[in-house]
Design a protein that fits this description.
5-stranded antiparallel sheet, 4-stranded antiparallel sheet, 23 strands, alpha+beta, 19% strand, Alpha-Beta Plaits, 12 helices
């Protein structure tokens, strides 16, 4: 059957299959084999170092069932380890990859013999495959059980090769780690959108941040909108728990969270910059007004549902006189006491008043997201008065953000721990040195004392012998 391997992302985890024991199998060979059972829409990825599996996505359920019904899958006499990929995420299925590890690099053929002789003492059934990783050769060893592998990794039982060269052990990439690279394209129910990203924030940072709190399925930063990321979780309950905190603080930036209203497929295929997930819309201003705003260090006016676009334009016209709306008749100039007044709902009109001429005072809008309103009466004798009314910005970050506090507390705790360990290591070295010095001094003192006692004993014996010789002649007399 025909296959279309051009899809960049896995679309449906329910149609994905885990295939283990593939470190020596080429992608094209595996694709040709799997295509016998049905259409494969996604089959390859940037293979990580020390990876011994592939993830294959079929186009429909019929192809998937046809593949899973086959009991024995072999390619080039290599038996494949087949699992339904979604079961691996929720169950603790035993995988062959958990009984393996990589060791190397292998520089000579004699290295293979020495390594196998060493590990056959641990497990006589161990066997190996030669695997190439980044232009270097490694051995992929497989043991009879996981306990042996755990014991070797914990105790770091590594053979020493010729020329006193020591190899390195690497655990294979686990398929549960690969789940962070797969995100549903059409299912939006378990996804949220994260707005306000910067160039310093990566998908790995987001995964690490959320994974400390809840299990994370996947994360994807939109290519057509790098300031927005899509994060997927296990279920809607987890999504609701995350959305209880509408803001997070990461890398010195406040990020806004919202429930996904569109699937990732529709976001990627969208050719417009309009987002249905934003609750705050930005008014589009015509070019003459935009130029005037730029001279006042203004860019755009965030609005809520209370203020329409027409009202905003009328407000701008009132503040930045003499800019007039396009396709409108210029009012005639009338000397005082006649003045021109721009209303909210009507074009500029000429009125006669007994009040002296009052020039409109431009009001500078704040740069941060805060709406400015004007209290205007429709009474012609009423003089407009301006007043700034602060409206809370969308998803304002609370000062007592508990997540920010917890993150800061964890960082300080880690810093204290590191300082304590560093100080303890330094103090321990000093104490050991002082103890060894004290032991040496005591040993030297004991040696001197021993020599002194030996000398004293010899002198006493010598004196005693001398007295005895003198006493013997006198007794004979």
């Amino acid at each position: 059957m025909a296959s279309n391997p051009n899809t960049a992302l896995y679309q449906n985890l329910s149609l994905c299959v885990y295939i283990g024991n593939t470190t020596t199998i080429e992608n094209d060979t595996l694709l040709d084999y799997c295509s016998q059972f049905g259409t494969v829409i996604t089959h390859s990825f940037n293979k990580e170092k020390f990876c011994d599996f592939h993830i294959i996505e079929f186009a429909d359920l019929k192809s998937l069932e046809s593949f899973l019904k086959t009991n024995d899958h072999k390619i080039n006499a290599i038996k494949l380890d087949i699992k339904f990929y979604k079961n691996i995420l929720t169950n603790n299925d035993a995988l062959n990859i958990e009984r393996k590890f990589f060791i190397g690099p292998i520089l000579h053929k004699n290295d293979i013999t020495q390594i196998m002789v060493f590990y056959k003492k641990q497990d006589s059934t161990v066997y190996y495959q030669l695997s190439k990783q980044n232009e270097q050769e490694y051995l992929l060893l497989q043991f009879a059980n996981r306990q042996t592998v755990s014991m070797i990794l914990e105790q770091q039982k590594i053979p020493v090769l010729n020329e006193h060269r020591k190899c390195h052990i690497y655990k294979p990439t686990h398929p549960k780690q690969f789940v962070n690279k797969i995100i549903s394209m059409k299912n939006k129910h378990n996804q949220i959108h994260i707005h306000g990203l910067t160039n310093n924030i990566t998908d790995i940072m987001l995964i690490d941040y959320f994974h400390k709190r809840v299990p994370v399925i996947a994360c994807h930063i939109l290519l057509n909108n790098p300031k927005c990321a899509v994060m997927e979780f296990n279920d809607e309950k987890t999504v609701r728990k995350i959305l209880e905190t509408s803001n997070i603080y990461l890398q010195g930036t406040n990020l806004v969270l919202s429930k996904a209203s569109r699937s990732l497929a529709s976001l990627l295929s969208s050719s417009t910059d309009d987002s249905d997930d934003e609750n705050i819309k930005t008014t589009v201003i015509s070019q003459p007004i935009l130029n005037s705003l730029q001279t006042q260090n203004l860019t755009s006016v965030p609005t809520t549902h209370v203020m329409s676009q027409d009202i905003i334009q009328q407000l701008l016209l009132a503040m930045f006189n003499p800019i007039q709306p396009v396709n409108r008749i210029e009012p005639e100039y009338i000397s005082p006491p006649e003045t021109n007044e721009s209303g909210w709902m009507s074009p500029p009109r000429t009125i006669v008043s007994d009040y002296p001429t009052i020039e409109p005072v431009p009001v500078r809008l704040p740069s941060h997201p805060r709406a400015t309103t004007m209290s205007i009466s429709m009474d012609p004798e009423y003089r407009p008065e301006t007043s700034d009314v602060d409206i809370k910005p969308f998803n304002k970050v609370p000062s007592n953000n508990i997540l920010q506090f917890v993150e800061q507390f964890e960082n300080e705790l880690d810093q204290i721990k590191n300082e304590y360990l560093s100080k303890f290591s330094k103090d321990r070295t000093t104490i050991e040195r002082e103890i060894n010095q004290l032991i040496n001094e005591e040993r030297q003192t004991l040696n001197r004392l021993d020599r002194y006692l030996n000398d004293r004993r010899k002198r006493v014996e010598k004196r005693h012998n001398k007295k005895r010789r003198h006493s013997s002649p006198s007794s004979s007399d």
